[in-house]
Amino acid sequence: MNETRNCQNCKKDFVIEPEDFGFYERIKVPPPTWCPECRLQRRMLVRNDHFLYKSVSSKSGEPIFSSFPPESGLRVFSHKEWLGDDWDQNESGKEYEPQKPFLAQFWDLLKTAPLPAKSVTQAINSEYSNNSSYIKNCYLSFGLMHSEGMLYCENASKCKDCLDCSLSLGCEFSSGTFLNQRCSVAHYSSHCEDCHNIYLCRDCIGVSNCIGCVGLKNKSYQIFNEQYSKEEYLLKLKEFNLGSRQSFKNILGKARDYWLKYPVKYARNYKNEDCSGEYISNSKNVKSSYYIDGGENLKFCHSVYVASGRDSYDQYRFGSNSELVYESCSCGDHVSNVKFCYGCFNNSHEMEYSFLCSSSSHLFGCVGLHGKKYCILNKQYTEEEYEVLVPKIIKQMSDIPYVDRAGRTYRYGEFFPPEIGPLAYNESIAQEYFPKSKEGAEEYGSFWRDPGDKNYVPTVRPENLPDRIEDVQDSILDEILECSHLAKCSHQCTRVFKIIPDELEFYRKFQLSLPDSCPNCRYFERISQRAPIKMWQRKCQCGGGKSSNEIYQNMSPHQHGAEPCANEFETSYALDRPEIVYCEQCYNAEVA
Question: 115 lies in which domain range?
C-alpha cells in the first residue's frame, strides 16, 4: 500500500507507492527522505549546462577551457591529458576512515583528485562544447549527441548545421527552434515534426512552405493557416522581408498571438504505452517524468533520451542504453547499476557515489577515474577486499551520517548534499528550473558566485546594428556587439557578444537578420516555451462547438457532440495559462 512521508528538505508530504518500494528493494537502497522535486533540484546542482571558463591545466600548465571555474580550486586536466596513461590515477587515493562521515571523506577527495576539464566523448573541432558525445565542428553548444555543425545549440541529437536550437532530434539547417523532430530548414518554430521550409510555426506535422501556422498536418503553402498558391506564397514571403530584424520581430509577435487562438494538447506525448508526464515519446511505463525518448520502466526521470534508458528511477540527463540507474545525474552510454553518481559513462557499471568516472566498474566514492575497477576513494583494492569493505561503509554511512549546515541528514541512499560540489547555485542547471536569489541559494545550503566584469567595450550598439542582412558587411566579424538586454534581464546576459564566420554564413544563406541579443538571452527566450516540471489537474476546454473561452471554433465534430467535453487530465499547463488546452481526443479531432 501507499506510504506518505514528509520531505526532509521542503517539509511537504510525498507518497511512496508499492512499485517504488519494489524498485528500492531490487537495487538494495533505502526509500528516499526527500520528495521527487527536491531530489531533482539536488541532482541538478552538480551539472553545469552552459558555462565554460578559461582555466589552466593542473598537469601541464597549458591554457584550457573548463566546466569548472578556476575559483573552485579543483585539479583539472584537459580531456586528452586525463585520458593519458602517463599519470597515476590512484595517487590521489585516500584511506577510508571509519570514524568520519563518508561524504566528508568524499568531499576531501573531490577537492584533490584530477578531473577532466569537460565531459566529452569523441568531440572533433568542438573545443567550445561540453556534455556532448560524438560531435564535430560545434561551437558553444552543449548536451549534444551524434551531431555536426551546431552553433549555440543545446540538447540536440542526430542534428546537423543548426543555430540557436534547443531540444532537437534529427533536424538540419534550422534556427531559433524549440523541441522539433526531423525538421529541415525550420526557423523559429516549435513542437513541429517532419516539416520542411517553415517559419514561425507551432505544433505542425508534415508541413512544408508555411509561415505562422499552427496545428496543421500534411499541408503546404499556408500562411497563418490560410491556403495560398505556390506563386502567391513566394510573393508573400518576399513581402514579409524576414531578413529585416524589425520586420521579423513584427511577424514573430503576430505569430505568437495567433498561436494562442488554437488549442494545444494537454501533454506533448507521442507513441507511448502507459506513460505520464511531459515530452515523452516512444516509451513504455514511464511515470512522472519529463523529456524521455525510448524509455521503459522509468519514474521521476528527466532528460533521458536517444535509445534512452530502462528500469531506472530519479535519473537526470543522458541515458543512451542505460539501466538500473538511481539518483544520478549525467550518467549514460551503456551504464548499469549506477547509484548516487554524477558524470559516469561509457560502459560503466556497479558504481556508487562516484564523480566523473568512465569505462569503469565496482567503484565506491571515487573521483575522476577511467578504466578502473575495485576502487574506494580512489584507492585500489582487490576484488575480495572491495566486497568486504563496501558493506561496512554502507553501514557506517547510516551509523555516522553526514549532517549539512541546514541540519539535513545524509545516510546511505541520499545523493550528494547541496554544500558538496564545485559549482555555485547560479552556475548549475538548478538555477534555470528552481531559480533562487543569492540569499535563497545560501539559505538552501549552496553558495553563489558573482560573475566577474570582463571589461569588454562594445563597438556596435544595438540601435546601430544593420537591420537587413544584405546590408551586413564582413567587417561585422571584427566588432563587439552590445546585447540589447544590457545585462538588465535575468538571463545570465553576457552584455556583449560576437558574430563568428559560420554564423554569418548561415544568416546570409537563409536570409535571416542578425540577432541583437547575446546567445544566453536568445537561449532563455527559446526555453520560455518549455513546460514547467509540475502538473495540474484540469478539464478539457472544449465546450462543444468551440472552446470554453469562445476563442476557437472547432473545425470537426467531436465524440461528445455539442456538450462540453468531460475529460480530465494532468497537464503542465497551469490554470492561469493563456493557452486553450484540449484532451487528446478533442485535439486529435482538430489536427487530424
Answer: 1-141+272-450
